[in-house]
Automatic annotation (TrEMBL):
PROSITE patterns: RIESKE, RING_HYDROXYL_ALPHA
InterPro entries hit by this protein: ARHD_Rieske_2Fe_2S, Cholesterol_7-desaturase, Rieske_2Fe-2S, Rieske_2Fe-2S_sf, VanA_C_cat
GO molecular function, one term: oxidoreductase activity, acting on paired donors, with incorporation or reduction of molecular oxygen
Record bears the keyword Protein biosynthesis: no
PANTHER family: BLR4922 PROTEIN, IRON-SULFUR DOMAIN CONTAINING PROTEIN
Full protein name: Aromatic ring-hydroxylating dioxygenase subunit alpha
Top-level lineage group: Bacteria
Length: 365
């Protein structure tokens, strides 16, 4: 788990005046909304006897513990202990941790870390969300593995002709090689655009939408934002048709990830197509699920030499470098779980050396 980032943790619509329990980053949180609509996030454990505050209720913008009724303000301080006689002071340590929150793109974002406000990496931009002509649908899927594997799967193009050979990858199943691509590196993100020439074996929905008469191939832009957001943008060869799949891969604990996604489309924007858009996103992820959950170790190795890489892995190499940078800065709580070291593999080390040079060049340009 990496600290000092904003984490999309729940849909805005799920947070009401009824306290909501949330497990994320190996922590227990309680979230609620006051009568002005403002959202607050606090630690869920009452320091008196450890009861879960999410079983309590909201009163005058405060949260009341269900066990002995201690009342906490939104700033975490306890302002009332009903069992105390008048004049008995409230212990100084009777307070809950609080966490900054923002609402964006239909999600609640919680900042977990200790960086001052001005130094915090920003929430990723998703301008299409507020642009007229785009339609959004939401969905989610839980994975029994570490978020780093789930994130890397979402930005990995070379698995598509294999895991998805009978669905979205049917058109490239017979031509699985990936053209060389450049990685564009941002401050906390990176992206790459690849093109896919679909064969006439493309099936179903994709056959309809990938108009073979057009000369332009399908373009896919794969991006990640540290530490656990992926974004895929499909630019179809029909007019300006696009689909954007924006996913928050929420780290629940070391072995559990909850992916909450938004699918945005700028065509067939009437509600009747929502169900289908949701179903397609889920079907694709369910195809990935057994393979991704089979990966050992569950967490990606901290060092590049922990696994082998080929050129089509460039984007995930950059992700691993960003992650290593965060760990080196002391932002992580993850141990190094390398089980194999491929340092002696000549092909791998030569290739890695080139990658490191290239990434350094991109980072400086
Ligand atoms: S456990 Fe919360 S008030 Fe006692
Ligand atoms: Fe996939």
């Amino acid at each position: 788990m990496l600290k000092n980032f904003w984490y999309a943790c729940e849909l805005s619509s799920a947070i009401t005046s009824k306290p909501k329990h949330l497990t994320m980053l190996n922590q227990e949180f309680v979230l609620y909304r006051n009568s002005q609509g403002q959202v607050f996030a606090l630690s869920d454990r009452c320091p008196h006897r450890g009861a879960s505050l999410s079983n309590g209720w909201v009163e005058d913008g405060c949260i009341r513990c269900p066990y002995h009724g201690w009342k906490y303000q939104a700033d975490g301080s306890c302002i009332e202990i009903p069992a105390n006689q008048p004049g008995v002071p409230i212990p100084k340590k009777a307070r809950l941790n609080t966490y900054p929150v923002q609402e964006k793109y239909g999600f609640i974002w919680l900042f977990w870390g200790d960086l001052p406000e001005k130094e915090r990496p920003p929430i990723p931009l998703l301008p299409e969300f507020d642009t007229p002509g785009w339609r959004a649908v939401y969905g989610e899927l839980q994975w029994n593995t570490h978020y780093t594997r789930v994130l890397e799967n979402a930005i990995d193009i070379s698995h598509v002709p294999f895991i998805h050979r009978n669905s979205i990858g049917s058109g490239i199943a017979d031509q699985p090689s990936i053209e060389e691509y450049d990685v564009r590196v941002g401050e906390w993100s990176a992206s790459a655009t690849v093109t896919a020439n679909q064969s006439n074996k493309t099936r179903g929905f994709w056959k309809t939408i990938l108009n073979r008469q057009e000369s332009r191939p399908l373009r896919v832009t794969l991006s990640f934002y540290m530490p656990s957001i992926s974004r895929l943008e499909f630019d179809f060869p029909i007019g300006h048709f696009k689909i954007i799949l924006f996913i928050a891969h929420i780290p629940i604990d070391a072995n559990t990830t909850l992916s909450k996604w938004i699918v945005l489309r700028n065509f067939i924007t009437l509600p009747f197509a929502d169900r289908d858009a949701r179903k397609r996103a889920l079907k694709t992820m369910l195809e990935d699920k057994p393979i991704i959950e089979s990966q050992i170790p569950k967490v990606v190795p901290n060092h590049l030499t922990g696994e082998l890489h080929v050129p089509s892995d460039n984007l995930s190499i950059v992700y691993r470098k960003f992650r290593k940078k965060c760990l080196d800065m002391g932002w992580g709580e993850e141990s190094d779980v390398n089980v194999v070291d491929y340092t002696d593999d000549q092909i791998s080390t030569d290739f890695l050396y080139q990658q490191i040079q290239e990434i350094a060049r991109l980072g400086n340009s």
